[in-house]
Every structure is written in structure tokens, then in C-alpha cells.
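User: Run a structure prediction on this.
Assistant: Running it now.
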Amino acid sequence: MKRSCARKRAVALLGGLMFALMGVLGWQMEHDGTCRLPAALLAAALLTLPAALLLAFLFEGRWKRLIPPRLRALPKTEAPFRTGRAAALLLLCYVPMFAVTFPGSFAYDAPFQLRQVFTGAYSTHHPLLHTLLLGGCVALGRALGSINLGAALYTLVQMALLSACFALTCASIARRCGGRSARRALLCFALYPLHMLMAVNATKDVLFGGFFALTLALAFELAAGARGRGLVAGMAVSGTLAMLLRNNAVYAAAVWIALLLLWICGKKRPERRCPPALIACMAAAAALALGANALLAAAMGAQKGDSREMLSWPIQQLARARLMDADRLTDEEKQAIDELMPGEAWRQYDPTVSDPVKFAFDTQRLMEEPGRYLHVWLSVGRKCAGTYLDATLALTYPFFYPYGEYRVSGYYLQMGISTEQTEQWCDFEWITSQSLLPRVLDSLSWRFGAKGAMQIPVIGYWFNMGAIVWVMLTLILREAYSGRWRRFAVGLLPMLLWGTYLLGPVMAGRYIYPFVCALPVLACRAADGEQGED
């Protein structure tokens, strides 16, 4: 009992400190545009205890007393969960948005991926599996005489795959937690507005979100002790497809596997260890994804993507220091930064997105003398530590703070047809919007797309990256608080995935989607697994 109480206090305090610090740093960046670290640390220290008490209140379930007794006493339904019917229901829920955006939303990376297919110049910058699926559908439609037909075909295929992923995810929840929990998750997948908007959006994040949710649900089943060839094969296949659709999943899985192996070695009680089958499934999925990617790249003659995609933090830090602290830099440091950012690209610095500077960044020059430029980055950082911190927080705070106003450059969620750079290579009629409800499309593009829905009370926070991440982290902390360490171990996977997004170039609306997909899975608990493992 004493050990259990000590664990609960420790988890609540650590969680309270985490949320307090993220809240204070985010508030400073949103309101002042700069971080005052001493004041932030002091404020976080004062807020830690209230935040910890709030977490304990939530985790102990005392909030349930606020629910009327007649609602708490609702009978649990034990009717079998019908996976096929669930998939059909989900697809029907997404059809209205298909009519609004017909033949779908082809923005973000879609024009660049289609360029690869129609020119034959492939690159691993975008997931090859998604590029081939997208391009194959569009090319088929063009061959049949209508490129819009091909675009609509891809959107329908994506809607069907997403519906199947969510239905299978709910089926997994039903096996572990019962039909009532599965139906709640189904309602979330069917009616949460972002699912409808993303189902018709031709970006890799959509299918990745579906397969990631399925992988997470099956991982919880394995962690709970479930067995079966179908379960193991299902997780391996869904995990492989998720990793083929986003490299972030590979990085997160690699760290997750390493942590679980260390955890197994450190656990003296076998019943508290994570099942080896779970680790083996994820390792197999990672190996299959890496192998399949290599085969696809070789088959398509794809060129390797530019490594600058992983350098958003140092690029932003150096650009901000060069722009705002030039008087503190030596001539050699200025020259080195100018070499990496030719044409004084650092003048294009935007605190919220690294793309303006990143697109001009000379990666080849960096690779020629990596030691020299690393020394410059460290040297500038010693003199401009505050500038480096501000650059990092300005880029990332929407990922960890429930912001009150969407201020990131560009649209939060694009719901139209993008023609970026198509005139440079496209000598045929491009995809055109034929919305059946154009006024609705215009309204959604403005209210949800441009503004991130933040002008809409309550609903705005359903699209708020910071709010969604806070809910996700709370659900993961709940497992540690209750001593359900196997579930906590599985919950580390979406948390590690979130860590990879923190290193990304911008907070885009589509980036929150995998975490929205994960929330119903994280929220469900098995009736026979409420007790902790201490």
C-alpha cells in the first residue's frame, strides 16, 4: 500500500511539473514571443502542486461523482461488435465530405508526389508506397479519359481503407474492453469532425493515422496477454504499413523497442514484464518496412531525400541568431551561416515554420565540412543560448501548449486542389474541384482551414494540437499512476511518435491526425484490468 501511494504521488508530481512547465513556456511564447526562463521556472514550480492535485483528482475517478446516478447506472450492452457494419457506417459518415470536396482534397505534398509518377523521377522524400498508390489511381483515371475520375478513385480507396482500419481498431477494443467501449470508439471515429475532413484529404498522414491506431490497439491486446497467429500477423502487417507511410513511426518504434528491452532486463517479476511477442512484432514490422522501402526505392530508381528535413531546429536557431544577434557573432561565424544559407536566406526566417530557410539550405555544403559547421553551431549557441531556446520554442510550442489563436503561417487544413508548381511539368488538364456544395467548401476552408477552427467556441479545441496532446499525455500518465505498467509501456509509443513531430518543420493541422486516431484506443480500459500490477 505504501509503495502504491508513493508511486501515485510521484507520478502526479512529475505529471504536474510537466504540464506546468509546458503551460508556462507556451504562454510566454504565445503572448510575448520570447522565453524568460527564470520566470518560467518559478511559475512552473508554483503551479506544479495544483496541477498534480488536479491529475490525482482525475486519476482517482472522483469526477465521476459529478455524473448523475441514473446515467452512471446505464446497463452495459454485450451485443457482439460487427466489424463489417462498423466499416460501412464509417464510410457512410465520410461520404458527405466527399461530396463537398469532390473529387477530394489534393493539397500539401500531392502535387509533388504526382509529379514523380508522371515524370518518372522518384524520390524517397515522400513515402513511395503512398506516392505509387496516389499516382496509380490518378494515372488510371487519366488513361480512362478523366483525371478527376482517377482523383475520385483515390479518395474512395482512402476512405475505404481508413474505414476498415478504424473498424478493425474498434473490433480489437471490443475483444479487450467489451462492446460498449468499442461502440464509443466507433462514434468518435465516425463523428469527430477531423476524421471527416481528413478522410478526403490526399496526404500520407491520413492512412498513417488509421494504421497507427490499429497497430496501437493490437499492441494493447498483446500486452494484455492475448495470443493468436491472427493477432500477431495483424500487428506486424499494420505496423509495417504505418512505417511505410511515415518515417517518424520507424524512429519512434526503434526507441520504443530499445526502451522495452531495457525494461524487460530490469524487471525481476515476470508478470510485470512486457510480452516478448509484442516487441518481436514491432521489430518485425520495422524490419519489413525498411526492407520494403529499400526494394521500392531500387525498383523505381528513387533518389534519396535531402537530410535537411531533419535539421529544422539547428536551421531555425542559426537563422534567428544571424538575423537578430549579428553583433554578437564573429565574421567567421557569419560567413559560415551565409554559406549554409546562400543568398542571405536567413532573412526569410519565419518563427513558426522552417521551410522558407530550409528550402534554401545547402545540405551538400554541410556534408563537405560537417565538423566545421558543427563547431560554428555550438559556438553561436554558447553566445546566443536564449536565441536558440526562443527559436526552438517558437517553432514547437503549438505542439505542447493549447494555444488560444492559430498563428502558424499557412492554412491549418487545406481542403481544395493545389496546383503548386504543376505548370513546370504538367502539359495536360490538372485535377479541378467539382464540389457539389461549393458554398459549404468555401466556409469550411475558411473557418476550419485558414483559422484552425479557433474562432469557434469549444469545437476549436477539438482541432487544437496542444489540447489533443495534453489529453493524450494525461491518458498515458493515468496508466503509470494506476500501476498498469504494461499499458503504460504501450502508451509510450504514441508519446515517442509525438517527440519526432517536435523535431519537424512546422505545426500543421494534418500532423495532429495520428494522435486524434490514437485517443479512443488510449482511453479504453479492460474491465478485468483495472487493478495495478504492484
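The two ends are 9 Å apart (CA to CA).
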